[in-house]
Amino acid sequence: MADGLTSGGLGDAIAASFVAGAVATALGGALALLVPTLTEKRRAALTGFSAGVMLGASFLALLLPAIAIEVSRGSALKGLVLPMSGLAAGALAIALLDRFAPHEHFLGGREGPASPTLARTWLFVIAIALHNLPEGLAVGVGVASGDPSLALGVTLSIGLQNVPEGLIVAVALLAEGYSRARSLGYAALSGLVEPVGAGVGFAAASVADAALPIALSFAGGAMIYVVLGEVIPESHRGHGAKAATWGAVIGCGAALVLDRGFA
Fold it and tell me: Does residue 145 fall inside a structural domain?
């Protein structure tokens, strides 16, 4: 693990999260120029794929390594105390953000407190940003772990699932009547929160060796909450539930391949 909050390590975390977040999301948004519309089943399948990758990465690259570290240290209850605490804390943190930050999903409607001063587009961007924050945390913690395979696996998993997410955001904005340039710009903008999350995650994991397991599991809990509370319900709205389910299965498989490929 990094020996503290060094500028090089922090720079690596921010750079990795920028590529996995803003660049991958912008790439997906650019695909909307080639595919300006999506059928309901294709949208559901892409959303399900993103959910599967996030869910697989949460367990394979975050929670299981946290438990393994605690077990290697001889922690009580087979190393589950800190990881379970981090899991709960991460989920609670995103639940509070989801409760108090005004945002609107393309299909699920408006959530959080009323905000008549914010345009609907910005509410969409905030919703995607809330999804991306725990992804940035995961990348930052992965880099701080000092394990190149873990860091690369997490970064690639996050980047992979952000491509279809960027496509979905841009297509939805095009359907709302926004220009191609603005749709692509807003899609990329929604990914810029990930470097912020990466900085926070890197700093938290770099405080001390003991902080790494709880930081890993915190990021995992945050991502699991987003997947189960937001992404999967979004993917199963309408008539694309089966496509979403198969997309999620394929996404979990992709996360497994990435995890084993860089183990």
Answer: yes
pTM: 0.84
Structurally, the chain folds into a number of domains equal to 1
What one-letter code names the amino acid at 76?
A: A
Q: Residue 177 — very low, low, confident or very high, per pLDDT cuts 50/70/90?
A: confident
Would 234 be classed as within a structural domain? Answer: yes
- In terms of Cβ atoms closer than 10 Å to its own Cβ (0-12, 13-18, 19+), residue 95 is middle
Spatial distance between the Cα atoms of 72 and 98, rounded to a whole number of angstroms: 35
Look at residue 1 and tell me if it is in a domain: no
Contacts of 251 (CB under 8 A, 6+ apart): 48, 49, 50, 51, 52, 53, 54, 55, 56, 161
Number of H helices, E strands in the chain: 13, 2
Query: Helix 241-261 and helix 148-175: axis angle, to 10°?
Result: 150
Largest CA distance in the chain: 58
Q: What is the pLDDT of residues 225-241, one digit of tens each?
A: 999 988 898 888 888 89
Of 142, 138, 132, 102, whose CA–CA distance to 193 is shortest?
132
Residue type at position 116: P
pLDDT of 106 higher than 80: no
What is the domain range of residue 242? 7-261
CA distance 162 to 29: 10
